[in-house]
Amino acid sequence: MESPEPSRDCPLCPRLRDFRELWRQREPVWFNAPVPTFMPPEGEGAVSLLIVGLAPGLRGANRTGRPFTGDYAGDLLYRTLIAFGFARGNYHARPDDGLELAGTAITNAVRCVPPENKPLPAEIATCRNFLVPTIDRFPQLRAVLTLGAIAHQSTVRALGERNSVMKFRHGGRFRSGSIALFSSYHCSRYNTNTGVLTEEMFVGVFRDIRDFLAIP
Ligand code: URA
Predict the structure, then answer these.
(1) How far is 4 from 93, CA to CA, in rounded Å?
(2) How close are the terminal C-alpha atoms of the chain, in Å?
(3) Secondary structure class of 180 (helix, strand, coil)
(4) CB neighbourhood size of 200 (10 A)
(5) Is the distance from the beta carbon of residue 67 to the nearest atom of ligand 1 less than 6 Å?
(6) Which residues contact 155 (CB under 8 A, 6 or more apart)?
(7) What pLDDT sits at residue 9?
(8) 14 Cα: distance to centroid of ligand 1 (angstroms)
(9) Cβ 119 under 6 angstroms from ligand 1
C-alpha cells in the first residue's frame, strides 16, 4: 500500500511546493507542510467515521498543522463533533488544546495549502495518491463525510466510484461497498455567512451519521 502521509517536503505538486516554500520564508514558525490526518488516540482500528475536508487554510491548518484548526471552518466543525460525541474535550483552535477525536479521523482531499484556497484539478488528482491509502488504512471504517463538492468528488474517485452516479448534494448519502458516503456543504465562513449552510443543516448531517453508526 502507498503511504497515506506525504513527506514534509512532498514535491509532487510544484505550484503547492513553491507556495509552501514562500510561506516557510515569510512565517518560519508556522507548520507550512502537508497537514497529516488528525487521528483519535486509540489509533486507526478505532475509526468508523472519516471526515474529508478540502485543503488546509493558510492561517488555519497550514499554520497549526492540525486539520480545521485555527480558522473559521473549525469552529463549527469541532463544536458539532463535540456535541455528537465524535470528539472529547474543548476546542481552543490550537493543536495543543487537548481535544481528542472519538472513533473519528479528519483529513483533507489536498494536504497542502493552495493559493486562494483553490487547488487545481491536477493537484486534487495527485493528492488522491494519499487519499486512497488514507481511506484504506481504517479496517473498521463505516462512514465517510465529505465537506464540499471538491472533497466529495475526489473521495468518490478514491472509492473507485463515478461522480455521474454519486452527484454531490448537501445531505447526500451513497453506498460504496461497505462504506456509507455522506455529503455536506463545506462549513466555510463564506457558506455560513451567506446562508448556503446553516448550523441546523450541518447538525442534520451529523444526526444522520450518528443514527447510521448506531445501527450494528
Ligand atoms: N481547514 C482544513 O483543514 N480543511 C478545510 O477544508 C478547511 C479548513
Answers:
(1) 25
(2) 29
(3) strand
(4) 7
(5) yes
(6) 52, 109, 131, 135, 144, 146, 181
(7) 98
(8) 21
(9) no
Ligand 1 proximity of 70 Cβ (cutoff 6 Å): no
Grid cell for residue 82: 463535540
| CB-ligand 1 contact for 156 (6 Å cutoff) | no
SS3 108: strand
Kindly give the number of the ligand 1 atom that is closest to the alpha carbon of 188: 7
Q: How far apart are CA 140 and CA 27, in angstroms?
A: 39
Is residue 31 in contact with ligand 1, taking CB distance under 6 Å?
Answer: no
Give me the residues of the chain with pLDDT under 70, please: 1, 216
What pLDDT sits at residue 1? 63
What are the residue ranges spanned by the domains of the chain?
14-213
Q: Does domain 14-213 have CATH number 3.40.470.10?
A: yes
Residue 74 pLDDT: 97
Instruction: Indicate the top mutation candidate among 37, 69, 71, 111 to test ligand 1's pocket, ranked by most ligand atoms within 8 A of CB.
Output: 71
Per-residue CA distances from 39 to 103, 153, 186 (Å): 9, 23, 20
Q: Confirm or reject: Cβ of 68 under 6 Å from ligand 1.
A: yes
Kindly state if the Cβ of 57 falls inside 6 Å of ligand 1.
yes
How far apart (Å, rounded) are the C-alpha atoms in residues 6 and 36? 8
* d(C-alpha 169, C-alpha 195), whole Å: 16
